[in-house]
Write a structure and sequence with these properties.
The structure holds 2 protein chains of 2 kinds. Chain A is mostly helical. Chain A has 15 helices and no strands. The relative contact order of chain B is 0.21. The chains are: A mainly alpha, B mainly alpha.
Chain lengths: 364, 322
């Protein structure tokens, strides 16, 4: 029996969860001796108050759409992919190799090739844990976490020993050629006469992220493969009985998940830094978990949650700039969002259900 | 590799195995009671920070130990409330706890000490001092056993011996007491325990609390024994390696000791590039050495565990009536 109307399930519960997370975050800010109201208004002003702020907010949101979709696809198969960080790191390596090794004539072709490279490298990094889970029974949560650490060491090696140009000390690749420069949102909007602040990192990748949202929706709810993924996620024995191979679905779901996480690299590596640096992912892979949970593993929810976290990320950067609140506040907020939307969901859901039951009784 | 080098590596293996052993036993209690806990990492991190911070402020490692244990217990309580009381997803709760600890420790460290998320270095009474066991000097002339006793067994901080004692103690509690029998039963078949009139919720909370205490010891040892102070993300995946060791040990205390010592040995050898070079005959990249414990964790999980059957009711919240 449906106790709550659908809108309550989709919007009211996540909203209450979010408010609780924000409330506790406010207490944390209070505890370290800062004013939470002032902090919030500074965040809103810095992230949403100008097209300059939006340029950053949307840039971060693009990252989180990819990693959020990655976690969401795996969630539909009941797989918990905590390896988005490592997969996005490898995706960055794919982008760098493609941008540096091939002389591209135009950015559109370079973008296409880099997307394929990023997705392939990310998918590869997710396929190993998927194979080990499906064939050897090793726990995917532990292996994907281990692969995050291994990816970091691997990238460190490649940057220091292979990609680092001679004569520099910085563990980073050479600058990508000019032809691979992606147009930014401000370039595109200014070209059609809409004013938008220059020198902001949001770029054409945002459009690819939106396409990815639609594609994931279509994949999960409108294709046979998506049905198989969801069936496998709901009940592995039932899926097996229906002739769905658990090995195949685990591998495919994780490859799609890793590919999406890897795609993030076209935003941060190709679109923003235009060279490969250490720790370019900056925790976006982990934020994908919070985004997927908030967005209820639905692409539209992921999109909204990504913009919210983009706001938090840019707002957090402004806080770190103007107050003594470090950027790590965003990790705390992210943890609280995961806690309230993911683990403590029942704490909110039960009382709300009680209220709806009472309303129904008194109404009927 | 000569005998003294071997002893040195074994000595640091034991040091590096200690936090893993604490965390592994912590996970053992929790998972035997049917509560998955990937938040071992976060609990250790919280304890490592609080103990180092309090020890730095008050100059007493014992106050630090107390604060660390309390911090870890608080995190364990949160996990208990989320996964037992509100029947939330245990994996997600653990992930949340890891991030919470990761963010809060640096946030508070920055706000208290303004040293880039570190605590001030600890010295003197702020750390656990090394204890020389009796007769270590007297025996050191006896061939092989003497140096082994003096180098490897003796000369560790108190918490190393606490960890070693925790192994037989855990075994005794789990396999020779009524509480232990019930705790294991609640991880296999909570309904049967409930039918016998024993509180499933109470037992699981007890297990989660023991898990919190043991993680606390592990974290305190990291920042006040192994290192002298807290640093950002200083647990470096030890909570997850401990979980891998737990699966390798198939949820048994003595095997947990062997498994964590193996992982400690791998970490110790990764710290000695000179020895690896002498053994293999060629130079190994430093990045590969750093990744070695993680790679071997994957390899061991994938290849050498055999059939590891976790407690049957693990990961599921108990619902009394349907």
């Amino acid at each position: 029996m449906q106790i709550m109307p659908k809108w309550a399930d989709i919007f009211l519960i996540p909203l209450i969860n979010l408010l609780l997370a924000f409330f506790i975050s406010g207490l944390v800010i209070l505890a370290i001796g800062e004013d939470p109201i002032a902090a919030l208004s500074l965040m809103v002003e810095g992230a949403l108050g100008s097209s300059y702020g939006w340029g950053f907010t949307l840039y971060y949101a693009t990252n989180f759409i990819f990693t959020g979709l990655a976690v969401a696809v795996a969630f539909h198969a009941s797989l918990f992919n905590i390896g988005g960080e490592g997969q996005a790191t490898l995706g960055g390596l794919g982008v760098a190799l493609i941008c540096l090794l091939v002389p591209w004539p135009h950015w559109t072709i370079a973008l296409l090739a880099a997307s394929v490279g990023a997705a392939a490298f990310g998918a590869f990094w997710a396929l190993i844990p998927a194979y080990l889970q499906a064939k050897r029974g090793s726990h995917i949560v532990i292996t994907t976490i281990m692969f995050n650490y291994i990816a970091f060491s691997l990238l460190n090696y490649v940057l220091v020993e292979v990609l680092r140009p001679a004569g520099t000390m910085d563990p980073a690749s050479a600058k990508f050629p000019e032809a691979t420069h992606l147009p930014t949102i401000s370039d595109m909007l200014n070209a059609v006469g809409i004013p938008f602040a220059a020198r902001t990192p949001a770029n054409v990748t945002l459009i690819i992220a939106l396409v990815a949202c639609v594609a994931v929706y279509y994949l999960i709810w409108r294709t046979k493969l998506g049905y198989q993924i969801r069936a496998f996620g709901k009940s592995e024995p039932a899926a097996k009985y229906a002739g769905i191979s658990s090995v195949k679905i685990t591998m495919i779901a994780m490859a799609i998940s890793g590919g999406l996480a890897g795609l993030m690299a076209i935003n941060n590596v190709m679109g923003e830094a235009e060279r490969l640096v250490l720790n370019s992912v900056e925790g976006a892979g982990f934020i994908g978990i919070a985004v997927a949970l908030m967005g209820r593993s639905h692409p539209f929810g992921v999109l909204l949650a990504s913009i919210l976290f983009g706001f938090l990320y840019q707002g957090g950067a402004e806080l770190a700039l103007w107050t003594s609140i470090p950027r790590d506040l965003i990790v705390v907020i992210q943890a609280l969002v995961i806690l309230f939307t993911g683990a403590l969901d029942g704490m909110v859901r039960r009382p709300v259900e009680q209220i709806f039951l009472m309303m129904r009784k008194s109404g009927g | 590799m000569d005998f003294m080098t071997l002893l040195q590596i074994l000595d640091s293996s034991l040091r590096l195995a200690t936090p893993l052993l604490f965390a592994c036993l912590a996970g053992l209690f929790s998972e035997r009671a049917g509560i998955f806990d990937i938040g071992l990492e976060g609990k250790m991190l919280a304890a490592a920070f609080l103990s180092a911070a309090i020890a730095a402020v008050y100059g007493s490692v014992w106050l630090g130990l107390f604060a660390g244990l309390m911090g870890s217990l608080a995190m364990a309580g949160l996990h208990g409330v989320a996964s037992i009381t509100f029947r939330g997803n245990q994996l997600i709760s653990g992930v949340a706890i890891n991030f919470l600890a990761s963010g809060l420790t640096v946030l508070i460290a920055q706000s208290w000490f303004s040293q880039g998320g570190r605590t001030p270095p600890l010295s003197g009474g702020g750390r656990f001092q090394e204890i020389n066991l009796p007769f270590a000097d007297a025996f050191s002339n006896v061939p092989i056993i003497g140096p082994f006793y003096a180098e490897v067994i003796s000369g560790h901080s108190a918490l190393v011996y606490v960890a070693l004692l925790a192994v037989p103690l855990s075994w005794y509690v789990l396999f020779r007491t009524r509480f232990g029998l019930r705790l294991r039963a609640v991880g296999e078949n909570p309904a049967a325990v409930d039918t016998a009139g024993v509180s499933v919720i109470g037992l699981r909370f007890a297990a989660v609390a023991i898990c919190g205490l043991l993680c606390g010891f592990g974290g305190v040892y990291l920042s006040t024994g192994l290192d002298a102070g807290f640093g950002r993300e200083m647990t470096a995946g030890r909570g997850f390696i401990a979980l891998a060791a737990l699966i390798f040990a198939k949820w048994r205390p003595w095997h947990a000791l062997y498994a964590t010592f193996l992982f400690g040995f791998l970490q110790a050898i990764a710290l000695r590039p000179d020895v690896i070079e002498a053994l293999l005959g060629f130079k190994v990249q430093v990045q590969l050495l750093k990744a070695l414990p993680y790679i071997l964790t994957v390899v061991i999980l994938a290849g050498f565990v055999g059939k590891a059957i976790p407690p049957r009711a693990g990961g599921e919240a108990y619902v009394k009536e349907r």
